[in-house]
Specification:
The protein is an alpha+beta fold. It is built from 19 helices and 20 strands.
Length: about 550
């Protein structure tokens, strides 16, 4: 069968769009296949906050943040903790990405018109040792326009090529087989799904109206991870490392993030590595206005909320808000329950609570400075946060601790929380606020955060007593495990070629983005430093597009 295109790309998310642009820039004919409708162009990146991991950026330097390629690599490797023979290519990919983040990445994106909020966020701070997990300095750069702002230059670029006939979109095309000829992948086959009229992110139908087969010189798999498929998440769950999989979870990604192409590529000979490495958040809340099934939103917390397990025991360091995601996940699951609690004040929620996602940050997404100032500097918390506080099923707001605990117990199957036990812990913490010294690790962390101008201005509340009525009302938030990212995936080399079980490249087959563990089959290792998901899609998509040109 004659080739219909120089390359076929499976998935119209960020990685696929970046790869398509690179191919078309070089005069190649590209077909992009996507099982969802056209309104899902951009995939999961559309829903993101748009954070990007840059190293030694102008934004950092303006805030007197001293960063370097060496420090960033130290943080990355300390977080990744590569310890397997198959980590060769993931580590090589990680080193190359840090070079990219410290060098060409920002100027390249800036040249396309991308811009960033001037205050750099300090995500995933770690909290253990210098050579261990976490960002030593703030590196989380929020793109002006959030996720849609990240997608914008790549969508524009791809649509321009489509207008010129170099790129063709085929939506509602679901790939079910990779075609191999004499050991070389020469195309794909699958089903044409019935047209869908659902809105972006909503669950679409899976009725089949026909079949298709496409021959191409190169095939790039850019189909995303498994976070929308709870069965696959539980099947891959590292019980020995993190404890039993949660009995209940909420979904941080739409239903179509289903992981189908991982198994399909494996059937064609591609190797899958590090499937037990994953990144799920512990600060999830049920969306009061859901878009997809089990729709959850992550709270992006500042450092001040008190964190309690299901029985009302305060979590130990480094299980502090925003510090060490997987350590906190492991600790929560070790309690025998799959939920936990934040207890905080109105002063904390006003300054420290942000919500993940473009739709939860309309001020940033709209690129309106006046909207940002009105939302972030107003009398209350940002409007989306206040909406969750008022309408969210996981929020309890009361004027005193006894009533708050009663409200918390009303949200669970059994009343595990004891008022006096919680009171003792909160009073002890409040006493630590009376002087500039403290043995409380969280109070020390709060003081350290406020040494950074960005945190002091917009992300960390002035230390205050939780039980002082002047700081109220009191707020409790029931936190769920929120599925999100797949850190392992298709094994690739530094040219994004998919490798077989013997580590040899499969001719004609490439992978990029989350399906490849964002590069190499897991360039994060065990832990992510945040801002590296979108960046990994951009980096690996660019590599795949450039090397699939032939």
């Amino acid at each position: 069968m004659a080739a219909e295109a120089d390359a076929v790309i499976v998935g119209a998310g960020l990685a696929g769009l970046v790869a398509a642009g690179e191919l078309a820039d070089r005069g190649k004919r590209v077909v992009i296949l996507e099982q969802e409708g056209e309104n899902s162009l951009g995939g999961q990146a559309f829903w993101s906050l748009g954070g990007l991991f840059f190293v030694d950026s102008p934004e950092q330097r303006r805030l007197r943040i001293r960063d370097s390629r060496e420090l960033a690599l130290q943080d990355w490797l300390g977080s990744a903790q590569f310890d397997r023979p198959e980590d060769h290519w993931p580590r090589r990919f990680a080193e190359s990405f840090v070079d990219f983040a410290a060098g060409e990445m920002r100027p390249w994106l800036h040249g396309m018109g991308m811009r960033w909020f001037p205050v750099v966020g300090w995500a995933e701070r770690g909290g253990a040792q210098a050579h261990g997990h976490g960002n030593s300095v703030p590196r989380f750069h929020i793109t002006w326009g959030t996720g849609p702002g990240v997608l914008e230059p790549f969508v524009r670029r791809v649509r321009e090529h489509a207008d010129k006939g170099r790129i063709e979109f085929r939506f509602r095309h679901r790939v079910s087989r990779l075609i191999k000829t004499n050991g070389t992948v020469t195309g794909v086959a699958g089903e044409i799904l019935e047209p869908s009229t659902v809105e972006r992110g909503e669950q679409s139908g899976r009725g089949v109206s026909g079949d298709f087969e496409i021959a191409a010189g190169a095939t790039i798999v850019a189909s995303g991870g498994i976070g929308g498929n709870f069965d696959l998440v539980r099947q891959s769950w590292p019980v020995g490392r993190l404890g039993p999989a949660p009995r209940t979870m909420i979904a941080g990604v739409p239903h179509h993030v289903d992981g189908r192409m991982i198994a399909i590529t494996k059937e064609a000979g591609g190797a899958v590595i590090n499937g037990d490495r994953m990144w799920h958040y512990t600060e999830g809340v049920r969306n009061w206005a859901p878009i997809w099934p089990n729709h959850g939103i992550r709270i992006l917390p500042g450092p001040s909320s008190l964190w309690f397990d299901a029985r009302g025991n305060r979590l130990p360091a480094p299980c502090l808000p925003g510090f060490d995601t997987l350590s906190t996940l492991k600790h929560i699951l070790s309690t025998g329950y799959d939920y936990s609690w934040f207890v905080l004040t109105q002063k904390i929620i006003k300054k420290e609570f942000a919500l993940s996602g473009s739709e939860q940050n309309p001020d940033f997404t709209s690129k309106s400075w006046s909207a940002v100032l009105k939302s972030r500097r107003g009398g209350g918390a940002p409007p989306p946060v206040e909406a969750f506080k008022q309408k969210g099923k996981d929020f309890v707001v009361r004027d005193n601790l006894r009533d708050l605990v009663a409200g918390m117990n009303a949200l669970t199957e059994e009343p595990l929380l004891d008022h006096d036990k919680l009171l003792e812990q909160v009073v002890a913490r409040d006493r630590e606020i009376d002087n500039p010294f403290s043995k409380d690790a969280q109070v020390t962390a709060i003081n350290g955060a406020r040494n950074y101008l960005g945190d002091k201005l917009i992300r960390t509340a002035r230390p205050h007593k939780i039980l002082d009525p002047r700081n109220g009302p009191l707020i409790a938030v029931k936190l769920h495990i929120l599925t999100r990212k797949t850190l392992g995936g298709l094994h690739t080399n530094l040219d994004a070629q998919v490798l077989d079980k013997d580590g040899e490249p499969i001719p004609g087959l490439y992978a990029a983005g989350e399906v490849a563990g964002f590069g190499g089959g897991g360039y994060h290792g065990y832990n992510a430093l945040e801002g590296t998901f979108l960046g990994g899609c951009i980096f690996s998509g660019r590599i795949a597009g450039r090397h699939a040109c032939g």
